[in-house]
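Figure 2 data, in text form.
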Amino acid sequence: MNRHDGFADGTQDHFSRELLTLTERGGVSVFDVNAFQSWERNHVPTARHLDPQRFEAAMLPQSRDAELVFYCSNPMCRKAPLAAKRARDLGYANVRVMSAGIQGWLNASLPVESAAR
């Protein structure tokens, strides 16, 4: 399913609770594009850290039909929409943004993971 009817840059808002369901079910790749230190403290379960300006297609799932979700800190942050646009430019068709960011996730009292040190 191609979901690109929300923002001018071709991404669609992805709500936190729906994302939780998707991560529990599997089949979605979630990318945190905040600073690495922020990702270490708290991130959406299964989320991988990704540098929003330096990632390449090799860092994303091989299938261009894979569902990708990007998020950053909060609705004012532009890193996730820009990373999502970059993924679309790399040929990924099913790209979404969780615009609430990690702050919205935390405010909704949803579960988080932290990096083991």
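Caption note: Strands lie at 28-32, 48-49, 67-71, 94-97.
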